[in-house]
From TrEMBL:
The chain crosses the membrane at residues 23-56, 68-88, 100-120, 140-161. InterPro entries: Biofilm_reg_signaling (IPR052155), EAL_dom (IPR001633), EAL_sf (IPR035919), GGDEF_dom (IPR000160), Nucleotide_cyclase (IPR029787), Rev_trsase/Diguanyl_cyclase (IPR043128). This is Bifunctional diguanylate cyclase/phosphodiesterase. Residues 618-642 are annotated as: Disordered. Residues 355-612 form the EAL domain. The keyword Glycoprotein does not apply. Residues 215-346 form the GGDEF domain. CDD domains: EAL, GGDEF. Keywords: Membrane, Transmembrane, Transmembrane helix.
Length: 642
C-alpha cells in the first residue's frame, strides 16, 4: 500500500485554471486505506512522503508543498478521529455499519482539507491587495477526491483477498485521472478563447469580481479599426491569423500581473491591476496603441492596424458588468470623436449622476413590457416640394418621464448611444415603426417612414438581420422603410458602415445621410455608400432666407445631390420664404413646422384627412431677403403650422 501511494503521486492530478493547492493526489486512495486498516500514524507517515514526491514532480515551492502537506495531515487527522471514535477497522469482512462509518470518515477528511485550505488562503492573503480567494467551482476536484477516498476501502478488501489484486487498482486510478483531465479541459474551454488561447469574457468577469475594495484597477477595451478590410482583402483565414498575431503581441506587451482577454470578434480587453489614476491608464493605453501600430507581416504583405481604446477605472466595489459597459461607452466615444483613446469619468457631462439616473430609468422602461412606459413615437410629414404631396414621415422619439416630463430625442440619444441601452431603444423603435407601417398598409394608406439609427447599431452589424426579421413578421415591403445614418457614425468606422448599409440596401431599405454638412466625412462616401437621399441640416435651412452663406450652402448640396442621383431633403423648413427658395433651387423634399409639427400616429391620420397639397408659386431663383406677406396661403389652419 505504501509503495503504491508513493508511486501514484509521481503523477498527481492538476485541474487547469485552479490554484496549485487544488491539486488532487491519487495517493489518498492508499493512505486512506492504510488509516482504515492500521491507524493514523502510519497513514500520516506515508502521506507526507507521497506529498513530497508530488511537490517535486509538479515543481511546487517549499511553501506550497508545506501548505499541501498541512492540508492532508489535518484531513487524515479528522478521518482518524472519526475512525477512532467509532472503533472502525476494516478487516476481511466489513459490514453495512463499516461502510456507513467509512463514508463518515471520508466526509470528515474532505471537510477538514477544504477548511484548512480556505483558512491558509485567507491568512496569507489578508492585507495584500487583490488577495481575495478565488471562488471557482469545485465540482471536478471534489468528485475526484471523494472517488479516490471511497476507492480506498475497496482496494483494502481486495488486498486482503490477494495482494495480486492491488495493481488492478491502478486502472481505476487512471479512470479518475481521465475524469479530472476532461473536467479541466471543459473548464478551460469555457474560460479561454479557442482561436487565440486568451482568456474570454467569462474569465474577465470572474477576474473583475475577485478583488479587494482598496485596489484600483483599469479596464481597457480595444476595438480594432477597419479589421473587416483584412477579411475582405485576404480572406477569413488570414483574418483569424491576424487576430492570433494581435493576441500574441498584446500578451507580450502586458505585464504578467495584468490580464489580456479576447471578448469576441475584433474586440480585446486588458485588465490592468496596478493603476493609480486616469493618467496612468492613458499611458498604458498609449503603450498598447503603439504596440499595435507596428505593421503585421502577412504572407509578405505588411498589414497596418489601429485600435480605438476605451478606459474605465475600477475602484470600490463596483461590479464587473458596470465596468465593462463604461469601457465600451468610452471606446465608442473615442470612435465618434475620431480619437484613439477615451477615458470614462464622472467629470464628463454625459456621465453626470443625472444622466446616469436617466439612463437607468430608460433601461427599466425599455425592459418593462407595458404600454404605459412613456416611450412614444411622433411622426413628422415629409412633403414633395414640386407637387405638395406627402411622400413619407420621419419617426421621432419622445419619452414622457414620470418625474422629468417629456424628454426629447437629443437628450435620449446623448444618454443612450454610448451604452448597450441604445440597442434596446433601436429594437423598440424599429418594431413600433414597422408595426405602424403595417397598420397604414392595411388602411390602404401606405406611407414611407424614416428611422434614425445610431453608430452603435451600424457597428454591431446585425441590424440588417433585425430589420429583415421585422419586415417579414409584419409583412411590410422593404421600400416603405428608410434608415437615416449620421456623418459621425460614418466617420467612426466607414468600412463597417458600408458593409451594413450595403446589406440593407440590397434588401430594398433606403438609406439616408442625415445632418449632411455638419460632419467631417469625405465626399467620396456619397459616391461609395448605397444612399437614396441626403438631408440638409436644419442649421443651414433655417437661415437661408436671410443669410447668403447658408443659401449658397443649401443650393450647393442640392446641386451635388442632383448630380449624384440622390434626393435632397431639407429639414427645418419653418416659413413660406424658405419653402419657395428650396423649390427654386430644385430641392426634392421639405420637412418642418411650416407644414406640420411632429405628431402621434392618431393625430397624423387626422392631419392627413385635412391636408390639401399646394405647389409653390413660380419665383425667380436666387437670394430672397424678406419672407412673403401671404405666408401659408392655401394651407390648413393653425394646427398644421407652427
Amino acid at each position: 500500500m505504501a509503495l503504491l501511494a508513493i508511486a501514484a503521486d509521481a503523477r498527481p492530478y492538476l485541474v487547469p485554471g485552479r490554484r496549485a493547492s487544488a491539486v488532487v493526489l491519487p495517493s489518498i486512495c492508499f493512505t486512506f486505506a492504510i488509516l482504515l486498516a492500521w491507524g493514523g500514524p502510519p497513514a500520516l507517515a506515508v502521506q507526507l512522503v507521497a506529498v513530497t514526491v508530488a511537490g517535486v514532480r509538479i515543481r511546487h515551492s517549499l511553501r506550497r508543498t508545506l501548505h499541501l502537506a498541512l492540508q492532508h495531515a489535518v484531513a487524515l487527522g479528522a478521518a482518524a478521529g472519526v475512525a477512532a471514535a467509532a472503533s472502525l477497522r476494516i478487516g476481511t469482512g466489513p459490514g453495512w455499519g463499516d461502510a456507513v462509518l467509512t463514508v463518515a470518515a471520508a466526509a470528515a477528511w474532505i471537510a477538514a482539507r477544504y477548511v484548512v485550505a480556505a483558512l491558509v488562503r485567507r491568512w496569507t492573503s489578508e492585507g495584500r491587495p487583490g488577495g481575495r480567494p478565488k471562488r471557482h467551482g469545485v465540482h471536478a476536484d471534489l468528485l475526484a477526491t471523494a472517488a479516490l477516498l471511497l476507492l480506498g476501502p475497496v482496494v483494502l478488501v481486495a488486498a486482503h483477498v490477494s495482494p495480486a489484486l492491488l495493481p488492478l487498482a491502478l486502472l481505476a486510478l487512471h479512470a479518475v485521472h481521465r475524469m479530472v483531465r476532461w473536467a479541466g479541459e471543459s473548464e478551460r474551454a469555457a474560460r479561454f478563447d479557442a482561436l487565440t488561447g486568451l482568456p474570454n469574457r467569462r474569465a474577465l468577469q470572474a477576474a473583475m469580481t475577485e478583488r479587494a475594495p482598496d485596489r484600483r484597477r483599469a479596464l481597457l477595451l480595444l476595438d480594432l479599426d477597419r479589421f473587416r478590410t483584412v477579411n475582405d482583402a485576404l480572406g477569413h483565414g488570414a483574418g483569424d491569423h491576424l487576430l492570433t498575431r494581435v493576441a500574441d503581441r498584446l500578451a507580450a506587451a502586458v505585464p504578467a500581473h495584468d490580464l489580456v482577454v479576447r471578448l469576441g470578434g475584433d474586440e480585446f480587453a486588458v485588465l490592468a491591476t496596478r493603476v493609480e489614476g486616469p493618467a496612468a491608464a492613458r499611458r498604458i493605453a498609449q503603450h498598447l496603441a503603439e504596440t499595435l501600430s507596428r505593421p503585421f507581416p502577412m504572407d509578405g504583405t505588411p498589414v497596418e492596424l489601429s485600435a480605438s481604446i476605451g478606459i474605465a477605472l475600477q475602484s470600490g466595489r463596483r461590479d464587473g458588468g458596470t465596468l465593462l459597459r463604461e469601457a465600451e461607452a468610452a471606446m465608442y466615444e473615442a470612435k465618434q470623436r475620431g480619437d484613439q483613446i477615451a477615458v470614462h469619468g464622472p467629470d464628463a457631462a454625459h456621465h453626470s449622476p443625472e444622466r446616469l439616473a436617466l439612463l437607468a430609468d430608460l433601461r427599466t422602461a425599455l425592459r418593462r413590457d407595458s404600454p404605459d412606459d412613456g416611450i412614444v413615437l411622433f411622426y413628422q410629414p415629409q412633403i414633395a416640394i414640386a407637387t405638395g404631396e406627402v411622400i413619407g414621415v420621419e419617426a421621432l422619439l419622445r419619452w414622457r418621464h414620470p418625474e422629468r416630463g417629456t424628454v426629447g430625442p437629443e437628450e435620449l440619444l446623448r444618454v443612450a448611444e454610448p451604452t448597450p441601452v441604445m440597442r434596446l431603444l433601436t429594437n423598440r423603435v424599429l418594431e413600433e415603426v414597422i408595426a405602424q407601417l403595417a397598420a397604414w398598409q392595411k388602411q390602404k394608406k401606405p406611407l414611407r417612414a424614416a428611422v434614425n439609427v445610431s453608430a452603435r447599431d451600424l457597428h454591431a452589424g446585425d441590424i440588417a438581420d433585425r430589420v429583415a426579421g421585422l419586415l417579414h413578421r409584419y409583412a411590410v415591403p422593404a421600400e416603405l422603410l428608410q434608415l437615416e445614418i449620421t456623418e459621425s457614425a460614418l466617420m467612426a468606422d466607414p468600412h463597417r458602415v458600408l458593409d451594413t448599409t450595403t446589406r440593407l440596401s440590397r434588401m430594398g431599405v433606403a438609406i439616408s445621410l442625415d445632418d449632411f454638412g455638419t460632419g467631417y466625412s469625405s465626399l467620396q462616401h456619397l459616391r461609395r455608400l448605397p444612399l437614396s437621399e441626403v438631408k440638409i441640416d436644419r442649421s443651414f435651412v433655417l437661415g437661408m432666407a436671410t443669410d447668403r452663406g447658408d443659401a449658397a450652402i443649401v443650393r450647393s448640396v442640392i446641386g451635388l445631390a442632383e448630380a449624384l442621383g440622390l434626393r435632397a431633403v431639407a429639414e427645418g423648413v419653418e416659413d413660406e420664404a424658405t419653402w419657395r427658395l428650396l423649390a427654386a433651387a430644385g430641392c426634392h423634399t421639405a420637412q418642418g413646422w411650416f407644414h406640420a409639427r411632429p405628431m402621434p400616429a392618431a393625430d397624423l391620420a387626422e392631419w392627413l384627412g385635412r391636408y390639401r397639397p399646394v405647389q409653390p408659386r413660380k419665383i425667380d431663383s436666387g437670394f430672397a431677403g424678406k419672407p412673403s406677406n401671404n405666408e401659408g396661403a392655401g394651407w390648413p389652419p393653425s394646427p398644421a403650422k407652427r
